[in-house]
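Box 3.1 A note on notation
Throughout this textbook, protein chains are presented in two layers. The first layer is the amino acid sequence; the second is a token string describing backbone geometry. Keep the layers aligned when reading.
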Amino acid sequence: MPLRRVCVALLLFVPCRLVAQETKPFPMDWRNTAGQHADVSFLLEAPAGKDGFITAKDGHLVKPNGERFRIWGVNLTGAATKPSRDDAPLVAAYLARFGVNCVRFHFLDLPARAGLVAANRDDTRALDPEQLERLDFFIAELKKRGIYTDLNLNVGRRYKAGDGVADYELLGFAKGLTYFDARLLELQREYASQLLTHYNPYTKSEYRNEPAVAVIELVNENSIVESWFSNRLLGKNVTKNPGTWTDIPESYEKQLTEKYNAWLAKRLPAGELKKLRAMAGAAADAPVPRLRREQFADAPAFRFHTEAGFYMELENDYFQMMRKLIKEELGARPLVAATSDHNHGASGYPLLSSASRLDIVDGHTYWQHPNYKDDPVTKRRIGYILNTPMVNDPLNSTVAELSRSAVAGKPYTVSEVNHPFPAEHACEGIPILAAYAALHDWDGIFWYTFGHAEPSGWEAQIPGHFDIRPDPVKMPQLAAGALLFSRPDIRPAAQTVARSYSAEQVRESIRLPRNERPYFTPGFPLRAALEHATRILGFDGPATKLPEGPGGEADRIVSDTGELAWQGFTAKQGVVTMETKRSQSLIGFCNSNRPQLSNLAAEIQNRFCALTLQSMSTLPLAEAPKMLLTATARTGNTAMKWDEKHASLVSWGGPPTWIEPVVGTVVLRKLKGAKRVEAVALDGAAQPIGKPVAARQTMRGWEIPIGDPATTWYSITVAR
């Protein structure tokens, strides 16, 4: 790609200068098993579950011996969940080398071959033996290498005529309906029983008794409370095979209204029911109508809170019913998660109040998730992004969004997160979240997604918004993130900001305005989520006093441990720094903001990049004999073309992937007793590109030129 010139606006005027480097091809090679220069599989204990099940204790995931267990994971989606017998060992070994210790198996309930559901029937009630065998073998290969499994149950099931489901063609993924329709509840119980009692001949256990299965998730991004406040319970859908987020058909709306009125008759005294009827304008012989979103603001508190309580009870009853099936009736030993708090444009507290009664609390978010529109000319479905850097918007960051969901006394995981491709600042995503997740002392992160396609079809191109497997920026950062989070290199926050809500606050939060996002707690200083840990104490009050805010410097937010700092964002030149004994990072506009860390400094030509230097042993950087340096900027596909606004791709391009190499000088400082320092660039298989380059010792430290040859990671050795 051609060079381009960009003016960088600082607090003072500076001349325009060359800030983007010429891009170079850089494909990742997952089949080459020889590269060991960036292997962090030493973080894993093999086989997974060798001493028993992962459990929850004192609000965290723990191993059988009581030691903490942090999940550093990826999702595998659809056909990617079932590699061939030849590919399964290679994929498992590849994941282990990047420090992945758990795989979330997503969309297993699709028709074969993408999923497990037998495709040659007129129902969705049987599992395909061939696909089960492939899954069994792969899970066994993961287990051998110390990689646990997270099994998702209801994600993308689309029902057929033989299922006996009313209006089956109008349901899409049946979100919301899965909570109350008797037939759908029956089919979910049946599927869960089939999968969890299935015997894996390679691990020699049923999944309910398999210690390498760490988590079982009930439903994915599915909440009837959310369906209500998103106006998806209106009963207006008549479109066959609708999308993921769809209104329900008329027959289900009538059923839900009947259930609501039966619930009212059971729950409310005659006087209160009469009062509610009057508020709703319902005659004595007519059902009480349910509220629509546009009626929320004007609805009397009694009517609004009563109906909110109905949906919250449905949600809780569903979670408890499925928990009882899995844990008591089936006797499954893995931990159970309900669903994720995933909609940060609205309150998640009604959902969390019931989801937190299970073993694990979970969250999802994406930095600038694509918004999809149909092009009026080509009719193609196109994803649009804002394409702005997160370092300039800390209070709306993935850290701030995800931090609202953690509940005291429960492990907290993030089972989906990403900076979706083709975001030009995506190199900031993994190191920032790994660092702050460790500060918050969360229990797991799963990046979405390692891949969608079967490995036999994997190419050296990024095929969609979420696949990280071919990404030459995110994959090296995945290894670096494992060191940050799993080891861990960052201390938990010294202070935890605790808050609790009254039951009334939880319900009322549903109709708070969007400008209260993501915490939907008026008065809560969002800076606190970047300075301390945060936890919810409870959902039935009384409400706690909020911390004072904002406090601190306007343009600098420092963690209470002093290890993390977020600065420069008011000038739109944000930089996040991380400084610990074994890991140090410079992330963001590093060419205009040049903080100097104890062991790392840099002079970089690129406008935006992420540098992370890490010890590859238990020793601190000052004494480490070997280090890993990840140096990442932009990436893309060959012949990829943006639209004029850089908000969407006109052409996705093809293989191979390219990188914008980070060019400049890295300075390694205060290396005790160092006599010689060498750096070698690594290729997409983590093997050396050419010969090592000797660092030059100066008054500043050991200077290493980077950028030629082009790469996103380096292995550094120190002789003493």
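Confidence is low (pLDDT under 50) at residues 1-19. The domain at 37-223+314-486 is CATH 3.20.20.80 (TIM Barrel).
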